Amino acid sequence: MKIKSIMIAIVITASLVVSGSAYAFSQINSVTTEENGQSNSSEVFVTEETKTLLEINEAGEELLAVSLEEQPDNLPTRIDASTIKDEINIPLDLASNPIKRSLATDNPIKELTEVRGERNGDINEVVAFYTLEDGKHEIIIFQTINPFANKDTAVDEFKKMYPADVVKTQNINGKTAVIEDADHRKQVHLISETHTYSISSPGTLNLEYLIEIAEQIEE
Predict the structure, then answer these.
(1) Separate counts of helices (H) and strands (E) for the chain
(2) 71 in helix, strand or coil?
(3) In 3-state terms, what secondary structure has residue 52?
(4) Would you say residue 60 has pLDDT above 70?
């Protein structure tokens, strides 16, 4: 149950748009739930008011996918990033790094706007927010420990979070990237034996740029 909660939090946190100091969720995210030993892919719609996990069926009806008692007790709470003892491996210099001038995008990173620490149970997480040149979109880079302490197991679990026809894997600097390549959303989850990283840009669909950013993560 604890690992399930961490996985749900990873997907939610990696895909959100932040408004002020409160989360403003407006998109559908995929999670995996386990019932009777079987994994079932469900859709998640989370609002600041309800924070409920919902399954969207083919008819567009919303069904409760995970019972309230099975949901995480709360979403990650903010903490001072300087108190996190784990080494921060996500890049914090992309605004001055040559990736800013990448040919992979016509809407590159403009500035680092925030680095925040979060606590999910007894797990510390780090999230970096970069504003893009258009001033309307962000790149969000998320780091946490690998909750499975095994790369192959984590890769399999991340792959289960998405429909098979929109997920793929590739090697990036010795780590395995689980990539969601859907028409409506692109995400990269980079996984090592010790950590997981997620790179997303809600509202943009430039997977090549997200992969280029993932290549900047070093352990």
Answers:
(1) 3, 14
(2) coil
(3) coil
(4) no
